[in-house]
């Protein structure tokens, strides 16, 4: 199940960035489950990673390799997260990097590994390493869609977005892919996402731009409140367009930042729309908060409430459950009589109770939509935060109870 | 669905405390849904209430009346929570109190109201007030079981516990009832609970004993992480036994405190065992924590993880999900290599990964039980905290999606 059609736009190739996808049979024989990405020399790469303290072996290696060198290769396997695998798992991830490094004739530090899938099982390096050459043979700048499919796990569809904008006669391209459907409550980025651009961006600036953008996009989506052990989000700037983004050129900087946010947000929201068992795409906007922290606390309390999520699944305008979640979010000295809660364009709560003139049918009309916006106006400041989430359906339970994931 | 047989022990009457149950047809015609409790003169009463800032009208009135006088009557209705009902709801609750006060010839302040049921609908005082006399006619010291049934909502069975202990030839009795099955993540007490004893206890001491005990019992159970707007837990000491509990007599104080904790814990755990859609009763014990806060953070992260809860429902020893939840609980500088996770008597995680010698079948054996204990040994201090919770089943979603509650 998923919300919306999930049709993909044209995925523009990014000069200097190639992707190759093949099958290593990590978990399922014949499945396309191994992706190698090749980054042209001179490119810069930035990454943000899970805050989960049980962070997986590949995440640990990504962080340490990024400190030492700019990467030339990214290698991604699905079907196995190589998380909770201790020292052996760390060595397994290094072995996969080593096989890529040897095949390409680069240093070990120039290879970054990524794994996603079931936690706690040994990475089958004996199947992954022999498949590396086939992934190299498949490398092409047109490999985005194959890679988008290649990194999926319980996803029901590939996730990708691409856009171009003209800057003084030069076309700048941003293209990205992401994956993830469950264990989604990113505390940095979500699951796996790779965005490449042919703009030229100095490494430190690239990192700050990625961190900022991830915070507004991937860090604002939640499906089940479970933060994964493997979340990784990468941004690669090949510079092939010859146009450099710097903070001094504020016009280009702003235009590029907006384009980046758009790509990142599309990729993040695509994960929510494909959330496990999702039948609704829910935008929760907390407005007029005293500060960002209380806005987010409130938004996540509502986004994670099983009672709100099951009411969303039922298309039941059970506004009392939203009100209760706002009430326990932990906002100090909340004046419940001063706040308002809106379901779409219908005010459901004001003066501490059901809004004047609210009718069940008006609420019903909003709740039966596929895309629902809940606005919570705290009326105690001017901060605003938005998070995106899904409902909690019987299928979510089936997906996570009936199959080992 | 519920865990365990749910058989009730003998409910010993408490001299000086009478209960009367009748039907007011609040939501369902003919249903026993109105309970009046009469407290003999000279008794002391203590209460703890929800921390939800949208606390319901009756909770607001309970707090204000308790400040002014010791109560003589408690009046409880189910079928309607009278929460999120604004000023009108506040007046409705006062009207019910007034009808009890007039019928009994006591002051308005001596009556405390309680409501539980759907949020946001007007309290049908026109049906509740006429039923008050019938509740009075039913008042009896043997009314515990009827009252236990009378305060239930989505509960599948009544919840009650009773014990007696001998103190220097005098039998001291504690008897209590509770209700609740969903919207259970107490931040004080859970839903409704009433415990009475014939011991004599000075009001301030009674309040501190109740607060302390609720913190160790009702405040340690969670079903769905949703803190209700109506949680109330009351402790009444009639003094009819003539035995006074004071802090100076440490032997009796300790014996009574233990008895109180036992009754409160039985009532709290009964709510978990009857959790909406529950098929498992899960004890989560976090040990060797640096402080109580991090122990509770870890315990609740595991207890609220939809992935852990669905794995419990599936009897799937998916220890990676427990590990992931511990990893995102927010414990600073957690040494993942130093901690251990135990499923019952089976060590599942150590040295940052799957425990040596752990076998799927060993984990499976524990997970297929109805009562499951998850022990998380952080190995960074000597604090220990325990919470009790349930699994997340398809029935939980059905119960909350298919019916308005």
Radius of gyration of chain A: 22 Å
What's the CATH first level of the largest domain in chain A?
Alpha Beta
Which structural class best describes the helix and strand composition of chain A? alpha+beta
The largest inter-chain interface, given as chain pair and residues per side, is:
A-B, 64 and 64 residues
Mean pLDDT of chain A: 89
What CATH calls the topology of the largest domain in chain A is: L-amino peptidase D-ALA esterase/amidase
Oligomer: homodimer
Distance between the termini of chain A: 17 Å
Q: Order of SSEs of chain A, N→C?
A: EEEHEHEHHHEEEHEHEHHHEEEHEEH
Sheet-strand content of chain A, in percent, reads 15-25%
Helix content of chain A: 25-40%
**How many strands appear in the DSSP assignment of chain A?**
15
- Based on the coordinates given, report the CATH architecture of the largest domain in chain A: 4-Layer Sandwich
**Largest beta sheet: strand ordering of chain A:** 13-12-11-14-10-15
Q: What overall geometry of chain A do the principal axes of the alpha carbons give?
A: globular
What number of domains of chain A? 2
Largest sheet composition of chain A: 6 strands, mixed
The stretches of 5 or more residues of chain A where confidence is low (pLDDT under 50) are 186-190
Explain the overall architecture:
- The structure is a homodimer of 405-residue chains.
- Chain A is of the alpha+beta class.
- Chain A has twelve helices and 15 strands.
- Chain A has two domains: 17-273, 4-Layer Sandwich (L-amino peptidase D-ALA esterase/amidase); 281-401, ArgJ beta chain, C-terminal domain (Ubiquitin-like (UB roll)).
- In chain A, 33% of the residues lie in helices and 24% in strands.
- In chain A, the strands form three sheets. Chain A has a six-stranded mixed sheet with strand order 13-12-11-14-10-15. In chain A, strands 3-9-8-7-6 form a five-stranded mixed sheet, with helices on both faces. A four-stranded mixed sheet of chain A has the order 1-2-4-5, sandwiched between helices.
- In chain A, β4, α2 and β5 (111-116) form a beta-alpha-beta unit.
- In chain A, α1 packs across α2 (86-104), α6 packs across α7 and α8 crosses α10 (319-328).
- Chain A starts with 16 loop residues before the first strand and ends with a helix.
